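so the lab meeting is tmrw and i was supposed to have these ready like two days ago... anyway. pasting both below. for each one the top line is the aa sequence and the line under it is the structure tokens. i havent really looked at them closely yet so no promises
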Amino acid sequence: MNSEEPEMHLFRKAIALRASDVHFDPTPQSWRVHLRVGRTLLPEAEVPRQAGEQLLRRLKLAAHLNLAETRLPQDGRFVRDFAGESYTFRVATLPTLYGEKATVRILYPRPLHEDLYSLGISARERARLERWLEAGERLVLIAGAAGTGKTTALYAILATLAREGRSVYTLEDPVEAEISGALQVDLDAHAGLTVGVAFRAVLRHDPDVVAVGEIRDAEAAFWAAHAALTGHLVLATLHAGSPAKALLRLEELGISARRIREALRGILFLRREPRRDSPRPDAPSPEGEPHERCGPPIYRAFHLGNIAGRKNERRGRKVGERGGEASDLAPLWKP
């Protein structure tokens, strides 16, 4: 691809807005392009049908995908330089009624926040989190809905721990940004480097901190709990709509209530609320200014209370299913 091609202009603008993804959606007459900024999907452009198909072909070619395969999902990646820095673009395709959709995830060379103190966490919540990190063992979950900034928070925490001289390892699929001082493992299930294989290997290298980019399946949940119970500090992100649902999600992945109680130090939960001055979704946006309809993340640190016993376990499940806050999770007011 050369600098004159339209997708490069789109990527340059996406980077300027710190967008996480660029969506290319086929319709009967055209391709619609959207940028994901935080939790907001911003309409960016509409490309004529033929030009959109050519754009998709160039993306697939750059990401080393099979150009002839249009019936099955594919994924790949490529690297391009902007303003003297290298960015990785992860391309995923999906067959749809009107052709292949492409979503391009942008992996930035540096985290948005370089340390824990720049996240905007209140002093009280940060003090609670710092006590967990200083303890040096057990599992700390960073939970929240999509687009709330979980990975950003994880990276900032890991960068802080690495600067303190701790031996920090990450297991990610994929590595989304470079963390100075950390050893980052880019998981590749196709090559046999699964989260379980990587965890077993990393634990032989005397780590102080092991981070899992995201707990997506039972294997990741098992190894995160296992490492936390063997004296390591483990951090991981988890998609969940509330702290109670984070516990429910762990149970769904096969981690018993007893094991959660023993392994889990606490949950840093993130949420974002709509801005009061948020414009209508169809309102025009000034050039270069995204209509971010949500404010910055709000951080709360929760610790696990008593979840032993089937009675409490059932109560937590019922509360989690209806979306409330389980009584087993309370704000951490004491060390």
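ok protien two:
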Amino acid sequence: MSVYANLHFALEGLRPAATLGTGASNNSNPTSRGPCVLVLGPKDSGKTSLCKILTSYACKQQRFPMLVNLNPSEGVFTVPGTLSAAPVSDILDVEQGWGESQINGPAHLHPKQPYAHFYGLESPLTNVNYYKHVISRLALAVSSRLDKDEVVAGSGVIIDTPSTLMERDPGHSIVSSIVADFNVTAIVVVGHERVYSEMVKRFKDKKTVSVIKVVKSGGCVERDASYLRSLQSRSIHDYFYGSFKQNLSPYTVTVDFSAVKVYRIAEESALQNTSVLPIGEDEVSAVTKDPASEYLVPLEPSTILQNCVMAVLNASREDSIPSLVESEVLGFVHV
């Protein structure tokens, strides 16, 4: 824990001094922003716990850090399958992990207001191009908030990542995209010597990025697949029915399928298979299309939608697929 505390003090020294208080101002100057920290590590190495520690310590210093979750298998302030970002201005709830957001109803502590984009797949490697696209859209939203709020900008950004980014290809290319999109200034590698060395080599010419290695916490335990599924089920349950502290009462709405359009997220294995291309279309003509049009696949109404959780986008039924992939999430429905 002393290593994590020293890391916090180092980050605190990089934060501008005059960022306490309230109010918004134009803060488009990157030099007035706090550190942007990217946390990497293998599975069950304590990445999320480290993000919680750094966030909690920053809040105790009267900072409002921006927390970014890039792990689609774990929902932070929302359901699994989304990438989210939210400024944290209050202590975290030790009983509920990250605490409550406004989507869970009234909260005992300060509710969080997450900005979410739907990825819809469990692993970033299932559709790398779409994952990078969602990251870029989320980074634009975070940058817009930092430009308008000097307190959040001065407090910095803390980014949690999935363990799949530890793979050389394409995991490390995704890391490079995250560093470029979020203007990352520090990469923290938890308990992995090889990845630390590779990150040092990859960003040795980028003087604005520091690579730091910290030890794995002794309290980390390995979680099996059934336990992770139970966490995901609980997160979805809490979204619709609330927590044990605050119950919610979801209601049923009958909607005609002619009034909505349903899409599923395409997997790269399907996109690369020429057998699924329309008749008369080859790989060359498919590549020349707008890549955004291949991120989503129209889905005909059928029993396959039963018991599915679907995201409702901030878009109209007539919008094109390129417009849909630019839209943020308004909420979720269970069929």
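from a quick look at the 2nd one: Residues 103 and 239 are 7 Å apart (CA to CA). Residues 252-334 form a domain with the Elongation Factor Tu (Ef-tu); domain 3 fold (CATH 2.40.30). will dig more after coffe
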